[in-house]
Design a protein that fits this description.
Fructose-1,6-Bisphosphatase, Chain A, domain 1; binds 7-O-phosphono-alpha-L-galacto-hept-2-ulopyranose; alpha+beta; D-Maltodextrin-Binding Protein, domain 2; single chain; 315 residues; 9 helices; five-stranded mixed sheet
Length: 315
């Protein structure tokens, strides 16, 4: 995966740039279409045998980057690819923060094929790895994270998406004395944030998209933390979708190993608009300046990359 990292970086940078004209436009389809089109074009130039496992949908519903789509010009690298050309389409077209372009990749056959539905998730950093359990009461998970990190419960900081479905969890977390940080969109970046020392985040918790769960799980694995998840099908049709995608025990907790079964994985994200980890795209003179993170699972190495692209070359 290491040798492909810089190529993936170019893919996310150019897809983020393609989204720029649509920031604040109100047009979600156009924004998504522009980033997806660009991402597919650049992925198809890479020397790899890639297969989309998390994408824009099924072949019949997504014209591009559909699950099962083959990518690349061939070669020795057989890779599973998870993409979100815009993670945060709504904030993009509303001109708000927390939008990124993201790719996660891993050795073929190692990423969970997650259907597009809700998923309950928990992520913690390296110190609390092996201590939490998604099915345990939130109060218990807070207690073990405090113990593992050597902090008081009042000093545990938890990220949770600002949605009515989380109201009860938010109340219970606050009753323990732990602190809640609400965010609007962007599970992927916020789950990865638990593993980055200095941000002061101890846990990510809540119900969000399953595709974003797998993307986040790659970042967390690359950074030495732990993530667990559980699919939340809302009807028989969604239950069948899980089974069709190879998930037999739909109601059980998916371990980190089931989400991502290898350290030979990579995660790359470029900011479209500002977020906790990287700035959005800036314009300096006649250039776009992009800010990205690159994470390598084998080295557990996080890199921040700033790149410059002449604006005229991209119009
Ligand atoms: C979640 C979260 C994503 O959208 O899927 C969320 O995982 C959707 O939740 O990061 P709602 O249906 O409540 O909006 C994101 O925040 C952005 O795609």
């Amino acid at each position: 995966m290491q040798s492909l990292l810089l190529n993936f970086l170019k893919v996310t940078e150019s897809a983020a740039i393609a989204a720029i004209p649509w920031v604040g436009s109100g047009d979600e389809n156009a924004a998504d279409g522009a980033a997806t089109n660009e991402m597919r074009k650049t992925l198809n130039k890479m020397k790899m045998n890639g297969t989309v496992v998390i994408g824009e949908g099924e072949i019949d519903e997504a014209p591009m980057l559909y699950i099962g789509e083959r990518l690349g010009i061939g070669g020795n690298h057989e890779v599973d690819i998870a993409v979100d050309p815009i993670e945060g389409t709504t904030p993009t077209v509303n001109g708000q923060g927390n939008a990124i372009t993201v790719i996660a990749a891993a050795k073929k056959g190692t990423l969970l094929h997650a259907p597009d539905m809700y998923m309950k998730k928990i992520a913690v950093g390296p110190k609390a790895k092996g201590k939490v359990h998604l099915d345990a009461p939130i109060e218990e998970n807070i207690r073990v994270v405090a113990e593992a990190t050597g902090k008081k419960v009042q000093d545990i900081h938890i990220l949770i998406q600002d949605r009515p479905r989380h109201k009860e969890y938010i109340n219970r977390i606050r009753q323990t004395g732990a602190k809640v940080h609400l965010f609007n969109e962007g599970d992927v970046i916020y789950s990865a944030a638990t593993c980055i020392e200095g941000l002061g985040i101890d846990m990510f918790f809540g119900i969000g998209g399953a595709p974003e769960g797998v993307l986040g799980a790659v970042a967390v694995r690359c950074l030495g933390g732990e993530m667990q998840a559980k699919l939340l099908p809302r009807n028989d049709e969604e239950r069948n979708r899980c089974r069709e995608m190879g998930i037999t025990d739909v109601d059980s907790v998916l371990t980190h190993e089931q989400l991502v079964a290898t350290d030979d994985c990579a995660f790359v994200a470029t900011g479209i608009t500002d977020n906790l980890l990287v700035k959005g795209i800036e314009t300096e003179d006649a250039n776009y300046v992009t800010h990205s993170i690159l994470i390598n699972g084998l080295e557990k190495q996080l890199r921040y990359v700033k790149s410059t692209y002449p604006i005229l070359a991209n119009v």
